[in-house]
Amino acid sequence: MTIASLINLQSQLRIQGQRRLLVLSGNSNWIIEQLIALRQGIIGDWPTISSHWPDAILPQNAGSLLGQEFLHGVFDATKGFHTEALLMLAGTLKAGSYLILCLPEWGTWSQQPDQDSQRWNEVASTIAVPNFVCWLKYHLQHDANVLLWCEGKPFTADKLPQLTAWYQPNGQPTIEQQKILQRLLAGKVGVWALVAPRGRGKSALAGMLIERWQGECWVCAPAKSASMVLTHYTDKKIRYWSIDHLLADCRLQKPRKVDWLIIDEAAMIPIAQLNQLTHYFPRLLFTTTVDGYEGTGRGFLLKLCAQLAQCHILTLTTPIRWASNDPLENWLNNSLLLKEYLPKSTTLAKLNNHHMVLLPISQSLLIEKPKLLSAIYGLLTNAHYRTSPLDLRRLLDAQGMYLLVAQQKENLLAVLWLVDEGGLSASLAHEVWAGRRRPRGNLVAQSLAAHSYFPQAAQMNSQRISRITVAAAFRRQGVATKLLSFYKQQAMEEGKDFLSVSFGYCEQLQSLWQQNGFHLVRVGSRKEATSGYYTAMAVLPLSTAAKQLVSRAQYLLKRDAFYINQLTGLALTAISDDQLNDEDWQVLAGFGRFCLW
């Protein structure tokens, strides 16, 4: 009877253009039995994502689904919850689909180790994720449109309220698409960024542009499969490029007679590479999602489009792959905080220091105060290009996390997010220095040990600043400095040796950290993929031992700056000292697999 009711409901979904989340929670054998019955009773494509089921797509390979459309899909989260893979699958499902979410037994779910935690937790062991489970359970139980079927409990698939029948677009441009097409077809020179939620027809519109344009159009995407939808809207043969091959070809010879470069899923491509491409083509169209697994379109606009003189922002709001107010999309937006965060104040506001409060925020408090969690995550999303649901997982359950916020009445002013580092044994620190071990986490501590001269840095107890951001309305009023100053005192009382930060080197950021007492100790020789800047690391020493380390690190950086400047084109302060010292001999010995330390 249960399967029959789901079959009847699916007919309604198709007519009304909706998609629904169906949750199966129970032991593995029971879940498999229900899946077999559903696949036999309901015709569909049924792509399946699982880390351990045979013939399933591994979560890390879910990107292969991009650019395609399916009817119904299965996401196995019984061993781990890969949020980005879930979003990828959901974005491919068309109207009338079920997304079946398979979960462990409801009562013991919060106690189960989550294999996905190995991707984002700083500690090597797999951990349970009780806060994330609690958060998801709330959103599963309090959403009337979620079909929650737990083993051993009664379940019925209620009929949908009667709504107006939905008519899927017939392949011709919608009113929104037509307006944008007219602008693009009249475009002379510049960059256009088409930013919209998933399922709004961004790729379709790109295909329509190719079909209607009289000249040559090239397409670039993170993977060729990501542009499959685009090909459905043009009969022309599309010249497809991977980002690396296109850049290499452009450097050899600037393309001629190419009118448009269309970059699909642009937010998945490093900004530095996108910026380079703007020099080779007269017109570029970037399409990207507002929210989701690859970061945010808002951050994309902030980081790239703000740097370009001729960047035109375009938006699509009406879905074409499903009806408006889709139950599945609504659940994903609410449970994974994908909706755009709108602060209470967006205009510049004068800070009242007497009313500003600095508060440490525990992970359990985030669950108790969901509005605070939404505000913190939203502020991070608006400010940082690569914020994704992976960061939501870290915020809720990762070990060694610390949050400090600044508030003024009901306004969230700023967030400081730190991660524990260091504390390695002397023997493990030496193995890191020698290049034989790379324990999980410890980004700065390990880098100082492995790529500089200081294995002792990995033994010290430190914390790395993962993120610090201030609401736009309250910037340039010393809020970040107050946060850092407050936390510096707390870290000293707790016996921390130093605080650290890793950032893309530019004069503005270097000056910011220097003003707050951080000393530059390392600059890498390769640019960060996302920012296009060289990786830099700075340290705020707190203990006597850390102060001695930083003093020596600064000297050695200046000594090596001559060579760093030659490799990078930077202008770091350099001193003349060509004599090999003890640290140099240690590095040479380590490189030759001998140990003199």
Provide structural commentary.
The protein is α/β, with parallel strands linked by helices. Helices cover 37% and strands 19% of the residues. The protein contains 22 helices and 20 strands. The strands form 4 sheets. A 7-stranded mixed sheet has the order 14-15-16-17-18-20-19, sandwiched between helices. Strand 3, helix 3 (83-92) and strand 4 (98-103) form a beta-alpha-beta unit. The protein is globular. It starts with a helix and ends in a 6-residue tail after the last helix. The model has no long low-confidence stretch (mean pLDDT 88).
Structure, briefly:
By secondary structure, the protein is α/β, with parallel strands linked by helices. The protein is 37% helix and 19% strand.
Biggest sheet, open or closed, and with what strands and sense?
7 strands, mixed
Structural class: alpha/beta
- Mean pLDDT equals 88
The number of distinct β-strands equals 20
So how many helices? 22
Strand content: 15-25%
Helix content: 25-40%
Distance between the termini: 73 Å
Low-confidence stretches: none
Rg (CA only): 26 Å
